Amino acid sequence: MSFIPPRPAALQDVRLRWWRFLRFAHSWMDVLTQRSYLMLLGHVRLPLLKLFIINDPVWVERILVQEPARFPKHRLMNYALEPLLGGSPFATNGDHWRRQRRMLDQAMTHARLGLVFPLMGQACAAMMAQLDTLPDGGDLDAEALMTAVTADIVFRAIFSVPLLGADAQRLYEALSRYQRLSQRALALRLFRLPGFGIERARRRQAAIIRNHIGACVDQRFDNVTTEQERSGADIVAGLRAAVDPQDGSTLTRLEVLDQVCLLFLAGHETSASALSWCMYLLGECGDLQDALREEARGISADGIPADTGGVWRMQRFNAVFKEVLRLYPPVGYFPREATQDEVIRGVPVPKGSELLVFPWLLHRHRRWWTEPDAFLPDRFLHRDALPTEAVYLPFGLGERACVGAGFAAMEAGLIMANLLSRYRISGEPQWRPGVVGRLTVRSDKGIRVRLHRLT
């Protein structure tokens, strides 16, 4: 029998408007109905705007790939993330976005991923040393573990220095609070309600993160020249050495800070979300762990890939990770804006409407997937059996697809290979996580597992 992991119950009564607002303020998943997983086009009228949910792959392709300039990121995305990410490419549009993305692409080349691979290995070694101090079979918070190691990895990859101890905990807590506050702030804005001090509170949390990262950026600018950065291996070196091919300009100190804040959020928060769910799912599937361990030991004697090529050869794990991303895509929806009047599937869509391309719904849509709520990694071992690319988009599609997709896949393979080389993961008895949608898809009460040392 297929394993069906948790998902939020679909909303039954759509008439209770204020109740829906309260549910949305907690998690956007809580206002989805059963029809959301069956429809090709949905429509919600809110006080601030008209919102359309796009589950038609033809229109997904058109919005994200064919005509992205006609459907830019919606202004509410900038509202949600600007305090934390500034003018980074994630939430901006137009010429400003294009210039930022050109520079970011240079810093995130595959060649540079090879250079930062040893830094990832150092972070994994630190994680394993910490785990070895814990009692065998003890209860473990998988979200806290994965947040810590992915934050350490991305910090080492960006700055060549670790992020450990009190600093890591402080940033983790600030980001968690920022997510909760931003979901509430967005709900209040959509329903035209006063902010009740939430805006100031979330900006305070964003400042904690930006101030810490900003100090690291300042240190590099003050102590290392751009010429010296050209021979550097980390991502800040790549950002400072990047040159815009159109006008010959380089990134300013503030622009580097914005890029680094984006990479820190995307490089650890989204990865931590996916890897936490991966640990939960593997904890429920012991036989699958054995298969992954055997595959890894066929690539390296100790079961830990020695280079990027070893990670890419872990085909079964890559299929597992893709299935995790299908069931729990870290970014649940991509908001776009109609810049002119449209007609989508025969329905008039006024200029200024928000269009939501929804990986969470597309990945579980009854029309596109067999057993959409089941955990079936083998489906990704048979590519001809998969539906069109436009209904599987954990990293987005088109020119705005996530620049860190390769980084995320590489760190996921390396982290899990390290864990499985020494431990067996089991689920926590009588415990089942809830699922919430905020900036990322998380459990509402953490993810509890147990780690048992292999003999």
Q: Calculate Rg over CA atoms.
A: 22 Å
- The 3D shape can be described as globular
| Top CATH class | Mainly Alpha
Please, how many domains?
1
Estimate percent helicity: 40-55%
Strand fraction equals: 5-15%
Record field, number of beta strands:
11
Widest beta sheet: strand line-up: 1-2-7-4
* Poorly predicted runs: none
Find the CATH topology: Cytochrome p450
The major β-sheet equals: 4 strands, mixed
CATH architecture: Orthogonal Bundle
Strand-and-helix sequence, N→C?
A: HEEHHHHEHHHHHHHHHEEEEHHEEEE
Can you tag this structure with a few keywords?
16 helices; 455 residues; 4-stranded mixed sheet; Cytochrome p450; alpha+beta
Commentary on this structure:
- It is built from 16 helices and 11 strands.
- The chain is an alpha+beta fold and 455 residues long.
- It has one domain (17-449): Cytochrome P450 (Cytochrome p450, Orthogonal Bundle).
- A 4-stranded mixed sheet has the order 1-2-7-4. It has a 3-stranded antiparallel sheet with strand order 3-11-8. Strands 5-6 form a two-stranded antiparallel sheet.
- Strand 1 and strand 2 (50-54) form a beta hairpin.
- Helix 4 packs across helix 10 and helix 11 (253-283) packs across helix 16 (405-422).
- The longest helix is centred in the middle third of the chain and has 31 residues, at 253-283.
- The radius of gyration is 22 Å and the shape is globular.
- The chain starts with 16 loop residues before the first helix and ends with a strand.
- The model has no long low-confidence stretch (mean pLDDT 89).
